[in-house]
Amino acid sequence: MRRSLSFVSSVILVAMAGLAHAQEKKVISTPDAPPAIGPYSQAIRAGKTVYLAGQVSIDPKTKQFVNGTIEEQTKMALDNLKAVLAADGLTMDHVVSTGVFLKDLNEFGKMNGVYGTYFKNAPPARATVEVARLPLDAKVEISAIAVHP
């Protein structure tokens, strides 16, 4: 009986150590997306889940904000998210949820047209809200959550 309890205790400790290891935070970063402009990471991986910071229309090559149309800004934001995902071996197909922040909800249709070209198969869950103001006076900011298979 004592030997069985010892074995079970060992199995539980190993399982707990594995769970703790799986939940460690790992910073995901790439020069192919804009660097963080504050005290945050481009993305954090915890276990199999990757939490991506919101992206606006910053060109990763020039590190300058690109003040274009809502379509141009949406494309650049999604391209930046795509680059961060790629840095952790993921694609847009691994995205399970997004948050879209719009300066003007009247531009939803235009944003949605571009957005739909990035998520053709099983699009992620999404919340879209209008906000008073975004960093750099952007028209759109998009964040995401992705999961490793």
Verbal overview:
This protein has 149 residues and is α+β, with helices and mostly antiparallel strands. It has a single domain, classed as RutC-like (60s Ribosomal Protein L30, Chain: A). It is 34% helix and 28% strand. Strands 1-2-3-8-6-7 form a six-stranded mixed sheet, with helices on one face. This is RidA family protein.
Gist?
This protein has 149 residues and is α+β, with helices and mostly antiparallel strands.
**Mean pLDDT metric:** 89
- The overall number of domains is 1
Residue share in helices?
A: 25-40%
Total number of strands: 8
- Gyration radius, rounded: 19 Å
Unreliable sequence segments = 2-18
The CATH architecture classification is 2-Layer Sandwich
**Approximately how much beta-strand content do the residues carry?**
25-35%
- Specify the number of helices: 3
The coarse silhouette is globular
CATH structural class: Alpha Beta
Distance between the termini: 40 Å
Specify the oligomeric state. Answer: single chain
Instruction: Summarize the main sheet.
Output: 6 strands, mixed
Question: What structural category do the secondary elements indicate?
Answer: alpha+beta
Element order, helices and strands? HEEEEEHEHEE
CATH homology group: RutC-like
CATH topology: 60s Ribosomal Protein L30, Chain: A
Protein name: RidA family protein
Signal peptide: 1-22
GO molecular function: deaminase activity
Organism: Candidatus Afipia apatlaquensis
Describe the structure using short key phrases.
alpha+beta, 3 helices
